[in-house]
Amino acid sequence: MADVRAPMRNFLDFEKPIAELEAKIEELRHLSSSGDLNIIDEVTKLQGKVDRELRQIYAKLSAWQKVQVARHPDRPHFTDYAKALLEDMTPLAGDRGFAEDAAIIGGLARFRGNSVVVIGTEKGADTASRVRHNFGMAHPEGYRKARRLMELAERFRLPIVTFVDTPGAYPGIGAEERGQAEAIARSIETCLSVHVPLLSVVIGEGGSGGAIALAAGNTVLMLEHAIYSVISPEGCASILWRRADQAQVAAEALRLTAQDLKKLGVIDRIVPEPLGGAHREPEKAVAAVGDALEAALNALRGIEGGVLRARRREKFLEIGQKGLA
Amino acid sequence: MNWITNYVRPKLQQLVRKTDVPDNLWTKCPKCEQMLYHRELESNLYVCPKCDHHLRLRAAKRLELLFDEATYETIEAPAEVLLDPLCFRDRKRYADRLKETQAATNVKDAIIVGEGRIGGLSAVVAVFDFEFMGGSMGMAVGDAFIAGARRAVETQASFLAISSSGGARMQEGILSLMQLPRTVIGVQEVKEAGLPYIAILADPTTGGVSASFAMLGDIQIAEPGAVIGFAGARVIEETIRQTLPDGFQRAEYLRDKGMLDLIVHRRELRNTLIRILRLIRNPLPSGQVVKIGDAGAWNAKRGRPGT
Ligand SMILES: [Zn+2]
Fold first, then answer.
1. Closest CA in chain A for residue B217
2. B43 and B148: one domain?
């Protein structure tokens, strides 16, 4: 059988036709343990139909559909990228002031031969790990740890690679009391201060201040169906439309897709996802991100630190000169 | 237009503007709900004489109150920003909303940047205007802020920012989020030039504005009672399903948590700034006693024109 893709566990609403086709395929496979040629033929045909459907659906995802894909529970998270792309990963904990924050993981690692400092927001993959990582919503300590690690990279002249996948910074009493705003501001400031290459990739959800805190980089990559926005569509809808059920409309209006952000000059490169999204073939998505990061890193190799920093700032200053009219 | 090659053009504008306040108007204090006579309120710098509540101020008024002889010139960004870059529409088109707000508020966007002297020392001050779409920060605000920072570097002036903003301007989507790193770069340029950057947080300073330039001051000052925070109180309550503590996200609360240097009454703000700026910028003992307020003599010693 040609197809080795694992059966999907979670289907999105608009993937319903796919779910039905794949259920049928599963059923036929159970029947065909004897290798009935007719059934094999039928499965192949159905598989072709699945691919056609997927290609069709995923070629024209609406912004709201992309929001759902970006938040898909089976989508690879930071730890999946770390496992597959990094060797000698050595997580380093704590902000040295108050606590360790597991919503942001960071440390030293080797990426395709290069020592790097890696930092990523982690949402978690099951109930226990989601709680441990606070669903990827960092407290000030997370951003302060990120800042500390960026300073470590600066000290040893190591490139920094950040992975962004967060609904946003955590809105809580303790987070506010300990200076959430200040922690994010300082993290942005440090991104814009360092003299080493800083690469960022938005792998899922790029949620507002909690995302830009780690993403003021020389090169900002974004997966094809990831999203990056100043506010969640739900939050925007409840403020501007005064109705949370207008989230789909808000998602369109916010222009939060990789395609729109590329046109606006906010991101530098879109990393294509496997057919049907990163959640269908996580390994392929992870490898594609690895290749894109390696190319981006190579492109910055040998550039003097002061120039790297000046270009990074210049890039952000120039954002806004291209509209979407 | 390129930010790196183009420069700020100062726009000449002498402003000793008397705000048009009809004599017979009364305002209700939002805090104690007392009816306040307009003239009295104005002479009290828009601080409630009954309960000391600091009412919001228009940006131009703040500049008048801070600069010597209420005189300043405005600084503008070298290029106009794209109007409605995302073609955003909520219940109304953003382009229309902008035009209506400009007409209603008499300002182009939610920030005014002025340059002049404070206690005889040159300063550039960026002030948010909450009346303009909640002081929200989009491209125009970011550009004006950066223009102000660069003007400060060019003239070796101190840079001050007075924030009064709900945060990023959602109608500009991701471009409003990009004003976080952009304004931070403005602050970095000022600091790297060895010049002081003072952040003055007025009510409110929240969201993307608090998570960028507003929290990066060499000195962090707030007005009494100002709401300051990253997340909105309602969002926090909905997330944690708890009642928030008394005074949560107020300036006094933040100061007690170690997040602010000073809370300064509006009446004292100008004098406090003069004192701080002189301490930072005139660090050496002088041969003679220079009285506070005698800026002319001070400047003569420094080889600067008097005010
Ligand atoms: Zn009052």
1. A182
2. no
Q: Does any CB of chain A come closer than 8 Å to the CB of residue B239?
A: yes
Q: What is the CATH number of the domain that holds B190?
A: 3.90.226.10
Question: Is B34 in the same domain as B82?
Answer: no
Q: Give the A window 198-237 contacts with B, CB below 8 Å.
A: 208-209, 211-213, 216, 228-231, 235-236
Residues of B in contact with A321 (CB under 8 A): 1, 82
Residue B12, domain member (yes or no):
no
| DSSP label at residue B295 | H
How remote is the CA of residue B185 from the centroid of ligand 1, in Å? 39
Give the count of alpha carbons within 13 A of A188, CB side only.
35
- CA distance readout (Å), A180 to A145, A241, B3, B214: 13, 27, 30, 13
Domain that holds residue B294: 57-301
* Together in a domain, B92 and B180: yes
Give dist(CA B187, CA B164) in Å, integer: 17
Does A303 reach chain B within 8 Å, measured CB to CB? Answer: no
B48 and B63 housed in the same domain: no
pLDDT tens-digit map of A237-261: 999 998 888 999 999 999 999 999 9
Q: Provide the chain B residues 260-289 that lie in CB contact (below 8 A) with chain A.
A: none
Alpha-carbon span B161 to B163, nearest angstrom: 6
Is position B100 within any domain? yes
* Overall number of domains in chain B: 2
Going by C-alpha positions, the residue among B118, B174, B175 that lies closest to residue B143 is: B175
Q: Is residue B3 part of a domain?
A: no
Write down the pTM of the prediction.
Answer: 0.92
Pairing of strands A198-207, A160-166: parallel
Locate the DSSP E strands across chain B: 9-11, 26-28, 35-37, 72-76, 111-118, 121-128, 158-165, 197-206, 219-222, 228-229, 262-263
Block residue for tokens 């993403």: A215
Q: Which value does ipTM take for this structure?
A: 0.95
Q: DSSP for A262-287?
A: HHTTS-SEEEPPPTT-TTTSHHHHHH
DSSP-H helix ranges across chain A: 16-31, 37-59, 63-70, 78-85, 127-132, 140-156, 173-177, 180-191, 208-215, 233-236, 247-254, 258-263, 282-300, 305-318
Q: Which tokens go with A116?
A: 């790097």
Size of interface A-B (CB pairs under 8 A): 182
pLDDT, tens only, B12-63? 444 444 455 555 688 899 999 999 998 899 999 999 999 999 999 999 999 9
Give the B window 115-154 contacts with A, CB below 8 Å: 139, 142-143, 146
Question: Of B110, B95, B168, B114, which Cα lies nearest the Cα of B140?
Answer: B110
In a domain, B10, yes or no: no
